[in-house]
Structures are given as structure tokens and as C-alpha cells.
Amino acid sequence: MRAAVAYGPAARALVLKLKYGRRTAYAATAAGLMARLMPEDAELLIPVPLHRWRIWGRGFNQAALIAQALSRRSGVPVEAGMLRRVKATPVLRGLGARGRAKAVAGAFAAAPGARDLLRDRAVVLVDDIHTSGATTDACVRILKRAGAAKVTILCWARVLDPDAAD
Fold first, then answer.
1. What is the per-residue pLDDT for 152?
2. Cα separation of 99 and 149, whole Å?
3. Strand partners, 122
4. What is the maximal distance between C-alpha atoms in the chain?
């Protein structure tokens, strides 16, 4: 698990402007600081997926935008469709670790054909904020079951005190 910054007022402001203020250029800002943490053996970038309803409402997946910016900097390809969010989940903000884990249970699945692409590859799972780890844990399980040899989590900010994330 690698994070560019600790979650605090500046990190929070960037993410909120990106996700809800539609300032998509902030994805490149986040990626710029995350790029120094890219594993040397990275073969594939996979963003944490959003459910299609959330994409329809927001217009984009912030993790996918960050992954695309990381790809431009590193040359590591992005495969946004390899991991799918098959179950709509509530906004996780305000839920404790147990509530988050329950909310994302069964929410993710590997896409058809993922095994062929992921088999024995070093994957980087890209996300914006790492709070309790429930979302990334669920994604890592699916990626490993689909054949990924190694999964490194790379995010913009890591919440060090989950109670302060709300």
C-alpha cells in the first residue's frame, strides 16, 4: 500500500474538487505526486471501478482519470475494464470499517477475459483515498483470484485516523 500524502485539509480539498467540483485536471496533479511511488515492476494499472450509476451521476471515475495520468507519466498501460463494480454501494463516507466492508461485499467482479490479461502480472490498483481498506481489500481479492501475481495499492491520500475522514 503506497500513498502520496496523508489525508488532511489539502488532500481533502483536492479530492473534493476532483470528485464533486468536476475539476478533472486535479487527477493529473494527484498522479504527479503518486508517480514517484510506482513500483518498478508494474505491468498494468487498474483503477478502482465505480458503479455505472455513480459514473452517470458524476460523469467520470476519478480513479480512472488518475490512472490515465499515471499511465501517461510512466508508460504502464491502464486496463479500466478488467475490474467491475457489479453492485451499487452507498457512499462510504461516515461508515466505520465494519460498515464499509459490509457495503462492498460482493460489489466487485473480474471482467470476462480478465484471467488472460492478469495472469502472472504485477498490477497496480489505483484509488483516490484509502480509508479503512475495505474497498481495496475487496478489489485485491478479485484481482488475485483472476490470476494477478502481485497487487500494489497506489492512492493519492491515506487516512491515518479513520474517525477524522468525515
1. 98
2. 29
3. 150
4. 41
pLDDT for the residue numbered 162:
60
CATH number for 2-164: choose from 1.10.10, 3.40.50, 1.10.530, 1.20.1740: 3.40.50
CA–CA separation, 162 and 138 (whole Å):
18
pTM: 0.91
* Positions in the chain short of pLDDT 50: 164-166
Grid coordinates of 44: 498494468
Alpha carbon of 19 to those of 25, 40, 50, 54, 123: distances in Å?
11, 29, 12, 11, 24
Q: What is the pLDDT of residue 163?
A: 58
* Span 33-72, pLDDT tens digits: 999 999 999 999 999 999 888 889 889 999 999 999 999 9
SS3 labels along the chain:
CEEEEECCHHHHHHHHHHHCCCCCCHHHHHHHHHHHHCCCCCCEEEECCCCHHHHHHHCCCHHHHHHHHHHHHHCCCECCCCEEECCCCCCCCCCCHHHHHHHHCCCEEECCCHHHHHCCCEEEEEEEEECCCHHHHHHHHHHHHCCCCEEEEEEEEECCCHHHCC
